[in-house]
Amino acid sequence: MPKKNLYSQRLFLKFIPMMTIAGLILLPVDGYATQLHASSEGIITHQMGHLFFLFSMVALIFTVTGKGLDQQKGWRLIQYSAFFFILWNLDAITAHFFDNQIHAVKIENISFGKMRVITSNNSSVLAWFYYVLKLDHLLCVPAMLFLYRGLSNIVHDQRQMMAKKDTP
Amino acid sequence: MIFSSIPILMVDVLGSVAMVVIALLSLYKATKLREMDPDNAVFLYLLWICVGFTIFALSRSFGHILKQFLIMTTNTETWHAISSYSGSVNTVSFMLVGLITLFFNQNWKINEKILTGRKKLEDTHIKLMDLNQTLEQKVIERTERLTSSEHKCRRIFEQSLDTIMVTDSEFKIMEINPAGIALTGYSRDEMIMKKMRAGSFFADPSEWERISDLIGSKEYILNEETEFLRPDNESLLVLITGGIDYGAFGCAKSYHFIIKNVNEKRQMEQQIAQADKLAALGELSAGVAHEINNPLGIILGYTQLLLKEESKHKDDLKIIEKHAQNCKAVVSDLLSFSRKGSSEMGIVDINKVVDGVIKFLSNHSDFRNIKMTLNPHTGDRLNILGNEQELAQVIINLVINACHALDGKGNIDIATEKTKQGKILIIVKDNGKGVEKKNLSRIFDPFFTTKPVGQGTGLGLSVGYGIIKRHRGDISVKSSEGKGSIFTITLPFYRKKT
Fold this sequence. Notes:
The complex is a heterodimer.
Chain A: H1 2-26, H2 41-66, H3 73-101, E1 105-111, E2 114-119, H4 124-133, H5 137-166
Antiparallel strand pairs in A: 1-2
Helix pairs in contact in A: 2-3, 3-5
Chain B: E1 2-4, H1 6-36, H2 41-72, H3 76-102, H4 104-159, E2 163-168, E3 173-176, H5 178-184, H6 188-193, H7 205-218, E4 220-229, E5 235-245, E6 254-261, H8 263-308, H9 314-337, E7 346-349, H10 350-362, E8 370-375, E9 383-386, H11 388-406, E10 410-418, E11 423-430, H12 460-470, E12 474-480, E13 484-492
Parallel strand pairs in B: 8-10
Antiparallel strand pairs in B: 2-3, 2-6, 4-5, 5-6, 7-9, 10-11, 11-13, 12-13
């Protein structure tokens, strides 16, 4: 598992620069001194950031397993944390996809405590789905909580190990 | 569709606060980990992750709370204006977290290297500790053995009845045992502190030269017999064995000597040899005297018969009678020496005999300028079983000999003593010319004399020797040339049988 993981990582790292060079050669465009940025660039960058974060969490889960650290409770909890961050990233990517990328959903505040979710095709399912997606803290807070619990366990284990070492 | 915004608002605000709090708590835990083991690269990695998450939580929570606040306060436009910045910061922060996370593998490898290095270091440390402990144990064992060995050597050195002496390369005394101090008569300080040389003990310096040359050439000497001279001028016969020692590292040259006192042994051997010689001479003398005695009696008898008659050879016969009488006296002396004569034994008080001898001799003209001193034993009577006349004869002989040694002037001390072993000693001491060393072994021989011809028969001491031996006693002499002689007669004390 760890070897495979390492191999995929290396392949990915090689793939990006190769594709970039290939794109520059095969799809030439007019070159300007300063490139103009479209308004959609921000959301795409943000989405790519989420994807990168998601990917790094996946890598963390596999690396922890690969090193056999999942036998320890602390690291297992960190794996759970990574898993919840993956879910949170998926949640965020989906939500951003609907509201910022394809503009299929829009929110309007009617009054205090009331809001209207406007979907492009008036789909109530999409509206409900989007409403649930907006409760993303229900994923990232547990993720942080697992991280904290994981670290607490590692601290505890380390303390015990040191005490054992000090005991003659 | 219309929804309640309260749940979203609540989750958003409370979630944001919770995120910040939990992120800070996680950062605290990661800091603790780092403090516990600052060399652990994985803990450093976790700390960086937590830093990233804290930045992420702070930026995100700040953005969300601000967003809710602005929307609620109908400042939606303001939010739209700053939302791009908030989003960007948020993007950068979680990308940072992602980036840090990807370095886990590298951190893990570094940590493994550190741990392997640490393990090796610990193993080496344990080995070193083990070696150190083994070394300490060995040092303790060796020290114990060395102490034990040193104790044994010290004990041998201190308790040895023979002298053990160590000198430096110039024969200066470095160490000498108590037996050596007793033998040489010098104090330890004199010998060691004043760096006395081994050659100082020798009576004859040429003898030391010979021995030091020998040890220099052969690197050892074995049972070399020589004479030591003590500070009180007493000489001792000793056997020296010695060798060179180059020290544990071969660079500290020293000499080790073992010196054996053979004085008493040699004296004993000499006495035995003397006794054997005198016994043989006694046998010979007895035979000769016996063979001469009878014809001499006949000659003397016939001479005396002829003298009773008137004869024209009367003068010649008197000469024959005189010389025959002389010969008879000599034969009588020889018989006394060889113990063949008969004498009556009785209880004799030695003090009385000695006193009588002194009184008798003090009137003699030869003793006019000689001071005779008597130191008699006081207390109980010094009784022996013997012949008073014979004993008196022996003492007279000794005193007359002392008088001759003084050449008419000097001191003669006569003393009587009783030893704890039940022996009676008669000591005749003079401060005359003494006896030459070469003659000491011969003075009890019959007919041995150093006097001019005609002045002595050489039978006085040998007759005395015979008499004393017949009394189950002994006679010995100590003499230093030019300083005088000491004759000591030892006789057994008589105890009444109860």
